[in-house]
Design goal:
The protein is an alpha/beta fold. It has 6 helices and 12 strands.
């Protein structure tokens, strides 16, 4: 069982035109593995519209499904593999991290053979605080590969005010599924003017949102190349197109949500 997917989706492969090759780790999101790998999923309302079931990951023969710890999933090899990786991560962390290190080393060599810059995204469908997970004598996987750029999207807004490895870039995912979460994101945007917010829009991307310029985040997945202090706009995909939890934004311009 391999852990990393290398430029396996249409969005990350776009990065090759900019000279980058991307390796992504896809795990079972939220609590579908039996352990909650997305601690803010309920507050942010992203469980149902999660991209975990978009594309080929959402297709199964005869629309067959199976239950994974109370989560109904399409019965296909992609979902089974994500659960298997998550099980290894949850039950044998040392073995998981050792394999991850080996695969990153192999990935670096592969990218170099193609004259591309290797970059790694570990939370393809999870929101793990990788900066807190040690590997061998290193405090985290980023420290083990200081020459490699790591990046992720996160809904754990407190991560943006804590020390992060210099080679780890985070973009904060916005949602209005709960007032508390929306206010926390807005506050973080004011506190960290250089931090970028990722917003999923149902319709066309607006020019501005929350007083910030909106850029098209669907043009590539290389978030560490974005200008600072912008809104990274994404178009709703898969289940998100019909989501009404507040995770997908319909209104513009944005109106600040008043504290209760």
């Amino acid at each position: 069982m391999k852990l990393l997917n290398i430029d396996s989706n249409a969005k990350t492969v776009k990065g090759q035109k900019q000279g980058y090759m991307t390796a992504i780790l896809y795990l079972a999101p939220a609590s579908s593995s039996g352990v909650n790998l997305c601690p803010m999923a309920k507050q942010a309302g992203c469980e149902n519209p999660c991209l975990n079931v978009s594309g080929h990951a959402g297709i199964s023969k005869g629309s067959a499904t199976f239950s994974a710890n109370g989560t109904e999933l399409p019965d296909n090899a992609i979902q089974r593999a994500r659960l298997a990786r998550s099980e290894l991560f949850n039950l044998d962390r040392d073995a998981f991290m050792a394999q991850l290190v080996g695969e990153i080393r192999a990935f670096i060599k592969k990218a170099e053979r193609k004259n591309l810059v290797p970059v790694v995204r570990l939370n393809g469908t999870s929101d793990i605080l990788w900066e807190n997970i040690s590997v061998g004598d290193y405090p985290n996987i980023m420290s083990a590969f200081p020459e490699i750029q790591f990046y992720d999207y996160t809904k754990v807004y407190k991560r943006l005010v804590r020390p992060l490895p210099a080679n780890y870039h985070l973009s904060l995912s916005y949602s209005e599924a709960s007032q508390k979460y929306a206010i926390a994101c807005q506050t973080m945007a004011q506190y960290r003017e250089d931090a970028n917010l990722v917003v999923v829009f149902r319709k066309e991307l607006p020019d501005t949102f929350m007083g910030r310029k909106v850029i098209n985040g669907d043009e590539s997945d290389l978030r560490f190349l974005d200008s600072k202090g912008v809104i990274v706009g994404l178009k709703a995909k898969g289940r998100a197109k019909k989501d009404d939890s507040g995770f997908v934004i319909d209104h513009t311009p944005f109106t600040i949500i008043a504290a209760a």
